[in-house]
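pls design
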């Protein structure tokens, strides 16, 4: 049994990049990938945060800082160039977890919010995937394709209670982009899937959880908020040999939150 688990779920010898890997969902996933054996690069605009996170996660495995900005095409290309400068020629796992949100009443919702949110949440995953396409193709194998894991949201599936129009629309876009990329990149042996988290104790949701944490938990079928192991486990599965024939899937990790909408 242990040999089967090792063969299906171990990420030993794999190389991963996690954007937004210094906080929130991205940090949870990065920690899981490191523990599963992957050499993991964490990306953030803040170089200090990258270095600190890499140092902390390296106690359990291999984690390397890769500072950069996924909000522009040039920024994504620069991240890819820095990755190559590290001597890397193959990428087995790309997790597009970096993201931003913006809330405001509908009459006050600024045009700039759309630009900022869509650039980071939707264009960023596309641009970085394209910038690293050669490395992903080099990292694919006949029995185990390279993996792209995009982080969507349950609020890309149904409208949130609060007014975050650009965020919800961007995450719905991430889900469909995932399906589109899965169709395009499948013949190149690159699997593309998405995780749609529900309420998690992340920086992005900190204020809402402080104000409505108990209510949010009660709205989940499981009666609790998400925990780091929940999303890390989903990411490890999608990144592993166990999911070699899984692509184009949007996987809710929401404790049944979506069933109560």
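designed seq:
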């Amino acid at each position: 049994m242990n040999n089967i688990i090792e063969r299906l779920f171990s990420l030993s010898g794999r190389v991963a990049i996690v954007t937004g890997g210094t906080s929130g969902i991205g940090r949870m996933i990065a920690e899981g990938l490191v523990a599963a054996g992957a050499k993991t690069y964490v990306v953030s605009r803040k170089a200090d945060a990258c270095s600190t996170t890499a140092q902390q996660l390296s106690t359990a495995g291999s984690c390397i800082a890769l500072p950069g900005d996924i909000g522009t095409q040039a920024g994504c290309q620069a991240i890819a160039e820095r990755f190559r400068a590290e001597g890397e020629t193959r990428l087995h796992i790309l997790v597009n977890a970096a993201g931003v949100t913006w809330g405001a009443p509908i009459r006050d919702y600024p045009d700039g919010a759309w630009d900022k949110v869509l650039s980071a949440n939707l264009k960023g995953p596309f641009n970085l995937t394209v910038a690293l396409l050669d490395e992903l193709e080099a990292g694919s194998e006949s029995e185990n394709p390279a993996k792209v894991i995009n982080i969507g949201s349950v609020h890309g599936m149904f409208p949130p209670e609060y007014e975050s129009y650009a965020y919800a629309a961007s995450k719905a876009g991430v889900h469909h982009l995932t399906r589109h990329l899965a169709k395009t990149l499948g013949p190149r042996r690159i699997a593309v899937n998405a995780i749609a988290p529900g309420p998690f104790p992340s920086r992005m949701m900190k204020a809402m959880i402080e104000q409505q944490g108990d209510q949010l938990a009660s709205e989940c079928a499981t009666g609790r908020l998400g925990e780091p192991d929940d999303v890390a486990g989903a990411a490890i599965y999608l990144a592993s040999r166990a999911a070699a024939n899984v692509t184009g899937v949007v996987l809710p990790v929401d404790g049944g939150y979506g069933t109560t909408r």
